[in-house]
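Saturday, quiet lab. Running sequence design on the structure tokens for the scaffold JK sent over.
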């Protein structure tokens, strides 16, 4: 089941992918990570999905990552008399704390902490930006706005506040309950929605206590303003282009995608590009040419993973969507221009011994045309450091921890395997050669490079490199 591409594929589970046979087909087609959206999943449903994925993992003999995506706060207007109201462009419209049904002149905003944070000049977007309001007057109890883009607003439509730093935690009571349930089931990654500041990620990390890694979804302008500190606190990032495109001008999103991807790569944190990548495949068996180009762009940028949402949740062709994304990624990575584009995006390593060894490993492997980089890793840090360098040589991560192997399923170029830790340097080299041959990375009489930390089993102690020759006896073992 070795993938012939480096970028990973995340597939979201839902009604169209609820059956074990369908999920198995998604894995065969190329899915490396399965996302469970806690906005829609019950705890029992989530547990059933986790058990199903773990059973498939055993069947296929490959580690599979599970990403639980927390819902985050959902800001919504109240209810209208008659279920909806038409807001006319240029009219005034009031958002207040009154629970009475709304009309074309006002409606409740049932979030008192939000009302207290609104200021004149701030924009309010309703129903994914279909209706746009501009605040003219604001008090802690009400905000009078001018309708800049009118339209029909119905009960409980979502509200976005691109200009307002919202004084609420990214974690609601539902999120806390969902997080504990997901951690108890042993999911590998937790995605945090509504991130505005590093403290939002720190709150989840404190609860997770290392039981899962934490991925911050970048979907709000406030997060862009604090990007470096959020990345420092996170284990990975997601470019959530859907909400970014609502809260910021659409034309800014491609540039932000590049900025986030390159910043994450520079700091050695995995980055996922998400939302509407093959949207037309919800109803069609083939994507548009523009969607193919969109996926290809993310691959050329060196993203660790690309993600399918509605395509695999509710689409008519979930398996075809994964297979299409897989083919696009393979084709891009076989483009003669691809290595040069990836190499041009490299940045200087962090001033640590482990990062210096990762850079040296890449250079030696490419200079000598070695067939694999075999990284012995306990925590996954060695695999992450080498992946940061985006080597042309394949990365084989050998770990005694199934949790580490699963987490590395999200990371660019890493093919992770679970095996007993090395006893000594000879065992380290011999087994790396044997496994590299068995997994199809190298053939007899070819060479690989082995990276490890001594003493073995010590997290974060990458300090040794060895070039090894694959003998015919090891390749056959």
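Result came back. Writing it out in full:
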């Amino acid at each position: 089941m070795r993938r012939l591409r480096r970028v990973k594929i995340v597939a979201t589970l839902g009604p169209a992918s609820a059956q074990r046979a369908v999920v198995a087909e998604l894995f065969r087609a190329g899915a490396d990570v399965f996302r469970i959206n806690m906005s829609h999943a019950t705890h029992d449903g989530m547990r059933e999905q986790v058990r199903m994925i773990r059973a498939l993992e055993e069947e296929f003999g490959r580690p599979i990552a599970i990403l639980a995506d927390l819902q985050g706060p959902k800001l919504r207007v109240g209810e209208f008399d008659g279920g909806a109201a038409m807001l006319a462009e240029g009219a005034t419209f009031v958002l207040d704390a009154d629970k009475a049904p709304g009309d074309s002149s006002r409606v409740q905003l049932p979030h008192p902490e939000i009302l207290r944070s609104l200021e004149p000049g701030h924009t309010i977007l309703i129903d994914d930006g279909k209706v746009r309001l501009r605040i003219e007057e604001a008090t802690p109890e009400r905000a009078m706005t001018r309708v800049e883009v009118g339209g029909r607003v119905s009960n409980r439509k979502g509200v976005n506040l691109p200009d307002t730093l919202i004084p609420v935690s990214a974690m609601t009571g539902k999120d806390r309950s969902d997080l504990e349930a997901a951690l108890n089931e042993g999911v590998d990654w937790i995605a945090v929605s509504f991130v505005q500041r590093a403290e939002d990620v720190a709150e989840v990390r404190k609860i997770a206590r290392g039981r899962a890694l934490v991925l911050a979804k970048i979907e709000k302008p406030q997060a862009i303003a604090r990007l470096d500190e959020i990345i420092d606190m996170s284990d990975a990032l997601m470019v959530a282009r859907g909400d970014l495109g609502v809260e910021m001008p659409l034309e800014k999103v491609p540039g932000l995608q590049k900025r986030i991807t390159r910043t994450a790569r520079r700091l050695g944190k995995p980055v996922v590009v998400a939302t509407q990548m093959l949207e037309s495949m919800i109803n069609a068996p083939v994507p548009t040419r523009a969607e193919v180009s969109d996926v290809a762009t993310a691959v050329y940028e060196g993203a660790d993973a690309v993600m399918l949402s509605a395509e695999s949740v509710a689409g008519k062709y979930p398996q075809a969507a994964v297979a299409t994304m897989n083919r696009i990624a393979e084709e891009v990575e076989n483009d003669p221009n691809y290595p040069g584009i990836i190499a041009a995006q490299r940045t200087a390593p962090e001033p640590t011994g482990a990062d210096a060894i990762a850079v040296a490993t890449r250079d030696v492997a490419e200079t000598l045309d070695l067939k694999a980089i075999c990284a012995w890793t306990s925590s996954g840090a060695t695999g992450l450091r080498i992946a940061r360098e985006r080597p042309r040589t394949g990365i084989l991560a050998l770990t005694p921890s199934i949790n580490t192997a699963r987490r590395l399923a999200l990371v660019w170029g890493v093919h992770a395997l679970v095996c007993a830790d090395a006893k000594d340097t000879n065992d380290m080299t011999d087994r790396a050669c044997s496994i590299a041959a068995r997994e199809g990375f190298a053939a007899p009489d070819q060479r690989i490079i082995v990276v490890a930390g001594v003493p073995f089993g010590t997290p974060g102690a990458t300090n040794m490199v060895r070039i090894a020759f694959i003998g015919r006896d090891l390749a056959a073992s």
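Notes for JK: The mean pLDDT is 95. Residues 437 and 443 are 6 Å apart (CA to CA). Ask whether to fix the surface positions before the next round.
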